[in-house]
Amino acid sequence: MQKLVRFLKWSVLAPLALCLGVVQAQGFPNKPIKIVVPFGPGGSGDITARAFGQYLEAQFKQGVVIENRAGANGILGTEAVKNAPADGYTLLLTTNTTLAANLSLYKKVPYDPLKDFEHLGQFGTAASVAMVSKDSGIRTPADLTAYAKANPGKVFFGHYNSASQMTAEMFKVKTGAPMTGIPYKSIGSALQDFYGGQLQVLFLEYLPAMAHIDNPKATAIGVTGATRFKPWPNVPAIGETYAGYELGFFLGLAAPAGTPPDVVRRLDGAISSALKDEAFLARLAQLGLEPSKVSKAEYPRFIQSEITRWAQVIKDAGIKPE
Predict the structure, then answer these.
(1) CATH 3.40.190.150 assigned to 2-126+250-316
(2) What does the pLDDT read at residue 322?
């Protein structure tokens, strides 16, 4: 009898739940959407989220708020979105740091990159550039290696996410250059100490580096991508000097697990249309991002491959999880 009652309840409630999801999707969005960037302002994720937010506002005719929730290498903001209502109104700017590297950098991470989120799509990929002080006399990656070896314990690099940390750590592995990492909560704090002389080298993602590449106080000595970055043809790839050196990153968007399928489809469709929009693509190019070719269906497999890749990079660097 109890089984029959449960069956009757389910046969009545299931269609109602399905109808509710359809109604929610049809009315979505009817209020502002928030994109949480789990890092401080000024970085790649922040700039990309704001560019997409502007596109989304024009498409959905609703406001889009960008909220920076920095802390614990992106963990605080990511966990906040995991625990947010699964209604499509709170989204997460995702990166290789939050979805992949943190799983090897920390003993325990309070979220599962695959189970706790609906991955809506990816904006694109990019790399970083190594910057040194103009007054240092360093002009090439080999110069930096020689300088660090000649001045052990006196060469410091700043890092504010996994990209800025692991590009430097990989440089150490490939060259044997003794450099010490200093953690920062935001890119702004790291830049302040770089220009103040407390840091000898800083690996900046292309997006924020564009505001500093022509600074008379700084010199770009090499990019971390497999090839030279087209806007800076005179800056070599570090791999040209040290074979096998290459490390880039990705940026995407996610919602809490359990977000209604139709809402997910609307948001996924917005990303897909953005990546076909000439004005948005031009904006990505200005920001140094190569548009993504990873579909939503391929995303879980892609994330798993990134988890594996970053685990190996971190292991090679000899970094123990905190």
Answers:
(1) yes
(2) 86
